[in-house]
Design brief:
Belongs to the glycosyl hydrolase 47 family. InterPro entries: 6hp_glycosidase-like_sf, ARM-type_fold, Glyco_hydro_47, Seven-hairpin_glycosidases, TRPC4AP. By secondary structure, the protein is mostly helical. The chain has 55 helices and 17 strands. The two termini are about 15 Å apart.
Length: about 1200
């Protein structure tokens, strides 16, 4: 089965959303028919003509929209507007044009255009159902049955008759029952509309009787193909049948329709050029191309569309493979800056640099194959044209930015709005709703007349074209070009840039502020014009000229001119799609920018531009390629180094693939096999560690107080830095916010971190702004340290971080800065997403918690989170319990631990217990504390936390507060498991808190609500129970008999139920680092059973449960595949296997032996899975690929 309709992601998103599921309803229909295969799409192409199709697409766009929070397009309002527009056109057709094919809205009469079928009525059928007008639908069906006759002496377009008549009838037929229409017995394989569609389609079949299988363009409905009919047909007229014809074959049982459609597709496929392109028109008799222009627009468009939709409809890999091959050629030869031009099909040379309005279907098609990023970029190009003219002209000259003469009109084509619908389904991007709003407003304002909606006239669009406001940018660029030539006076360049800069910076300001959401204009014409006329390339050339010239006396560029160039480039990048990506592809320019960072006057502008460029760069830059990197870094002051950390964050983090399936263990293993050496990110991490003093400087930055950050910078310098951190947001607005807060929080004895500076605000930024500035510095530094801690050089980084006292330094800042009292400011760092709270305070807290988690995880330095008194407490706990003291505690250097009354871990516990129930911090807090417990289980560590009430706090959150957040629950379950594992005192405390059956049932319900989240706790309980059963201590025996949790897990039927469910919720293809723990928990249950010679009993129980659930073999076959994967996955994973061994106290050798026994092919072995799978259900040789 093809997984086609899947949306991609971006680096801002955590998970991709599914755009649709083409298979579910299909199987239901096919089951009713009891015919051929089960691949039948419930809704073939909705072929509505002109305005009807436009409205059919607009309506679902708004039907699927959520209610807005601000003054964005109101979905309810526009739903009603769309309905009103439809009925304005439909009622006028009935009154003025029926029974003709079409309404002529200007003259209020009708005309036949496609065969005298009352075509508008057929087109409107499914629209009526979508609008819920079942009564009118039934009336129109009756009218069509009485009035439409296909046995007439009329020459009809094969293409148009198929998509409009056959498609319209089929879609209405298949929608009818869902819409509440009473259908006849045998539906969907019988019905009046289906019979009409079949009759119409049979009239088209003679056109396919050619040597190539490719059909003629026209057929006489009574006599077949006329003897003198031209054999030249457009590509779309050949390849646009598979959707309707395959549906007909499935519903009628007659394969002839699908067969001829497939033969036509194969004829086109064989005729493609050596570079993989098809032309515009072909001779269907000889197979020779007549028109050799290749593109995605008129004459070709629906061929590509039907390959994709046919592949989805039929779940046909061959059709999808054809399209993907075409897609490669299209991208290689026709795509330029996310536009698609026309090229010569054999050479790939540009023949027409135009955009045709029919091409606007392409972004929607891209979204159907999951190529969301490219789809959005192309869509926004097309949307720019719409905004310029209030509609899409038939032809638009891309280089000139103008319409093409005699092709200026807009006949209400729906393709762009259809693409918006698909993309909105995939992304939820509100920009797409704005297009829907613009379409409604434009069509009503420009196109509405008394008798319907008319084509937007060429004269009107010409007038709009003349009124396009370029603000003199092309002329200014021409002057800039003349004055920037070698030996020119660069001072004139600066004066020209001073004129250009305000035009672009105003648009950039709108882009990066909250006000953008409320703007009626979502495009930025000035920056677009600047790029369109070559401004970006010209500025790059000006900046790099001193490095490119061979003259002995090189031209000098002033700092002010450099700053202006960099600022304009940055503003263009953020407002115009594709610019940043183009710059990122120029490695010479990217490396050149680093050389500009040596100049303090241009540092901030350079750093901001580099960060933006590296964020979209496909291939990560190698830090070792930067000229004199160590010297460059050593020249930075503390503020510059903090800014530089924003750039480093991009270069040392593994690239996000943007697709969920790339994060599966299968995909990761395959990637590791192909890339055996270190990744570029890992190489960059090593490069940083080789810079003398780098980690020490980061530690000082992370732990310095705000008072220490105040240097000799002037007010203007500080303000410039603040301005840059806000990504060019409204600085005055930000200043007003924090200035208003200042009097509220100031006092004469305020500390360094919360008080007001004594100096006047006229000469220094307010202290609260300094605090916020420092917070933003620290979160970038902590991020870099955190990434380095998780890298290959972890031990080296650990040693340096300990030596430079990062942990005690953070402990000293905990109350005053890191977990200070929440400010009343609503200022956010990047406010583009109104649903994301990215305030500096919150971001710093999360980054701090991530650092603690990485620092503590499986490392003996975790005891640096305590102070000396707390370390003594750990020793006392071990002594009292008569167990050896942990070596890491004994070996901890007391001069490096936290000072003060409380260590960092204790402080964290205190704030954790005060957090609101649904706070997102709970997840990170629990992860940080859990990492302190991970590794070899330490009784002293557990008791240290138990004495501070951690277990009771966790149980309160799980049981009494009934927390609903899955992330928080997962982190609390994991923490609870580590806290209780092998600790009889913890189970005793658990039983004391969960002291009623009702409470215990709530606890079980939380566990069972998601085993992926709670399986680690299940594993810890199982391991603990096994150890307790082997002990004879009276205290243990008493707790075993009293504890509800242990008693529950003691029952074999409960353990087998957990085992069955754990195996059932995972599959090899969906295994990730997150859910592979379910597989290991399953193995723990079976390993412990094997120890007691009870493994056959568990396997027998699984077999019985399979039969009870009525799918014999499914669970055991799945488990067999999972274990085969497990063997491969852990074969060379020394770190992972050590973690399994330490956390379970079961040797990894025993893990491997158990898996080998379970996978034994010996069907006589009572411990082999194959012994419990009956032969008819055996599927253990199933292949799983890592490609």
């Amino acid at each position: 089965m093809l997984g086609l309709v899947v949306c991609g992601g971006s680096r801002h998103a955590g998970a991709a959303r599914r755009a649709g599921d083409p298979g579910s309803a299909a199987e239901a229909v096919a089951g009713l028919c009891r015919r051929r295969r089960e691949h039948l799409c419930p809704m073939p192409r909705c072929s509505l003509y002109s305005l009807c199709l436009l409205l059919c697409v607009l309506l679902p766009l708004y039907n699927n929209a959520s209610e807005p929070e601000g003054p964005a397009p109101d979905p309810a309002h526009y739903r009603e507007r769309v309905k009103s527009m439809f009925y304005h056109a439909y009622n006028n057709y009935l009154e003025n044009a029926f029974p003709y094919d079409e309404l002529r809205p200007l003259t209020c009469d009708g005309q036949d255009t496609w065969g005298s079928f009352s075509l508008t009525l057929i087109d409107a059928l499914d629209t009526l159902l979508i609008l819920g007008n079942v009564t009118e639908f039934q009336r129109v069906v009756d009218v069509l049955q009485e009035s439409v006759d296909f046995d007439i002496d009329v020459n009809a377009s094969v293409f148009e008759t198929n998509i409009r008549v056959v498609g319209g009838l089929l879609s209405a037929h298949l929608l009818s029952k869902k819409a509440g229409v009473e259908v006849e017995a045998g539906w969907p394989c019988s019905g009046p509309l289906l019979r009409m569609a079949e009759e119409a389609a049979r009239k088209l079949l003679p056109a396919f009787q050619t040597p190539t299988g490719m059909p003629y363009g026209t057929v006489n409905l009574m006599h077949g193909v006329n003897p003198g009919e031209t054999p030249v047909t457009c590509t779309a007229g050949i390849g646009t049948f598979i959707v309707e014809f395959a549906t007909l074959s499935s519903l009628t049982g007659d394969p002839v329709f699908e067969d001829v459609a497939r033969r036509a597709l194969k004829g086109l496929w064989k005729s493609r050029s050596d570079i993989g392109l098809v032309g515009n028109h072909i001779d269907v008799v000889t197979g020779k191309w007549v028109a050799q222009d290749a593109g995605i627009g008129a004459g070709v468009d629906s061929y590509f569309e039907y390959l994709v939709k046919g592949a989805i409809l039929l779940q046909d890999k061959e059709l999808m493979s054809m399209f993907l091959e075409y897609n490669k050629a299209i991208r290689n030869y026709t795509r330029f800056d996310d536009w698609y031009l026309w090229v010569q099909m054999y050479k790939g040379t540009v023949s027409m640099p135009v955009f045709q309005s029919l091409e606007a279907y392409w972004p929607g098609l891209q979204s159907l194959i999951g190529d969301i990023d490219n789809a959005m970029r192309t869509f926004l190009n097309y949307y720019t044209v719409w905004k310029q003219f209030g509609g899409l002209p038939e032809f638009y000259n891309i280089p000139q930015g103008y319409t093409v003469e005699k092709r200026e009109g807009y006949p209400l084509r729906p393709e762009l709005i259809e693409s918006a619908m698909y993309l909105y389904q995939a992304t939820g991007d509100p920009t797409l709703l704005e297009l829907g709003r613009d379409a409604v407003e434009s069509i009503e304002k420009i196109s509405k007349v008394d008798c319907g909606f008319a084509t937007i006239t060429e004269a009107f669009l010409k007038e709009r074209d003349k009124q396009a406001k370029w603000n003199g940018i092309p002329l200014l660029l021409q002057k800039l070009y003349v004055n920037s030539q070698p030996n020119s006076d660069f001072s004139k360049c600066q004066s020209i840039l001073k004129e250009i800069s305000p035009l672009l910076s105003m648009e950039a300001m709108v882009f990066v502020t909250e006000e953008r959401k409320f703007s009626q204009e979502s495009t930025f014409p000035n920056t677009y014009t600047f790029d369109l006329f070559g401004g970006v390339d010209l500025l790059v050339e000006i900046l790099m000229r001193p490095t490119l010239t061979t003259q002995k006396k090189k031209q000098k560029i002033s700092d002010d001119l450099t700053k202006d160039c960099l600022s304009i480039l940055y503003n263009t990048c953020i407002c115009t799609d594709g610019v940043t990506k183009r710059l990122a592809e120029r490695n010479d320019f990217v490396l050149f920018l680093f050389t500009l960072m040596t100049n303090r006057k241009t540092f901030l502008q350079t750093a901001t531009l580099i960060e933006d460029i590296l964020g979209v760069k496909k291939e990560m830059i190698r830090l070792e390629d930067i000229p004199n990197l160590a010297t460059l870094v050593s020249s930075f002051d503390q503020q510059q180094l903090a800014n530089f950390c924003r750039i480093l964050a991009v270069t040392i983090s593994e690239l996000d693939t943007g697709s969920d399936d790339k994060h599966t263990l299968l995909a990761k293993n395959a990637h590791q096999k192909k890339n055996l050496g270190p990744t570029c990110a890992e190489i960059n991490q090593a490069t940083l560690l080789n810079i003398p003093g780098f980690i020490e400087r980061l530690c000082k930055l992370a732990t310095r107080k705000v008072s220490e950050s105040t240097g000799t910078s002037s007010f203007l310098q500080e303000l410039e830095e603040w301005y840059t951190w806000l990504d060019n947001a409204l600085v005055l607005d930000a200043l007003m916010r924090v200035a208003n807060e200042e009097p509220e929080h100031s006092s004469p004895d305020s500390s360094d971190e919360s008080g007001v500076a004594n100096t006047s605000s006229r000469t220094q930024l307010p202290q609260s702004m300094k605090i916020m500035h420092e917070i933003m510095y620290k979160l970038e530094v902590l991020y870099v340290l955190c990434v380095l801690l998780m890298g290959r050089q972890r031990n080296q980084v650990h040693k340096m971080i300990a030596e430079f006292k990062l942990i005690p330094g953070l402990n000293n800042l905990f109350d005053k800065l890191i977990w200070r009292k929440h400010s009343t400011s609503t200022l956010v760092l990047h406010g583009h997403n109104q649903n994301c709270d990215c305030s500096p305070d919150i971001t710093l807290k999360i980054q701090f918690l991530r650092l603690l988690q990485s620092f503590s995880d499986h490392h003996e330095n975790k005891y640096l989170l305590l102070n000396s008194q707390e370390l003594n407490e750990l020793s006392a706990i071990s002594l009292k319990a008569n167990i050896p003291e942990v070596d890491a505690v004994v070996n901890t250097d007391r001069s490096l631990v936290c000072d003060g009354k409380r260590g960092l871990l204790t402080r964290l516990l205190q704030v954790m217990k005060k957090e609101p129930t649904e706070s997102s911090f709970r997840f990170w807090q629990a992860r940080a504390v859990e990492s302190f417990l991970r590794g070899a289980t330490s009784y002293a560590d557990q008791m240290f936390l138990l004495k501070r009430g951690l277990l009771e706090h966790i149980l309160y959150c799980i049981v009494d507060s009934e927390c609903k957040s899955r992330d928080v629950l997962q982190s609390y379950f994991d923490l609870l498991g580590e806290l209780m594992k092998f600790n009889i005192d913890a189970f005793k405390r658990f039983n004391k808190y969960i002291n009623t059956d009702e409470k215990f049932q709530v606890f079980l319900n939380q566990i069972n609500s998601s085993l992926v989240d709670s399986n680690m706790l299940v594993r810890c309980i199982t391991l603990s129970l096994d150890r307790f059963e082997s002990q004879s201590d009276m205290k243990v025996v008493h707790v075993l008999s009293e504890c509800r949790l242990l008693s529950y897990m003691y029952q074999m039927n409960n353990r087998t139920t957990f085992l069955f469910r754990l195996i059932n919720i995972i599959h090899v293809q969906t295994l990730t680092q997150e859910n592979v723990s379910c597989l290991n928990t399953s193995l723990v249950i079976l390993m412990l059973a094997r120890r007691k010679d009870k493994l056959p009993g568990y396997l027998n129980a699984l077999q019985k449960m399979e039969y009870d659930e009525k799918y014999p073999g499914f669970i055991l076959n799945n488990f067999h595949s999972l274990l085969r994967f497990w063997q491969q996955h852990y074969l060379h994973k020394d770190k992972d296997s050590t973690c399994l061994e330490n956390s379970s106290c079961i040797s990894f050798t025993y893990w491997k032996e158990t898996v080998s026994i379970l996978l034994s092919p010996d069907r006589t072995s009572p411990c082999a899975l194959v012994s419990y799978i009956e032969e008819p259900y055996m599927d253990i040789d199933r292949n799983f690929t890592e490609e």
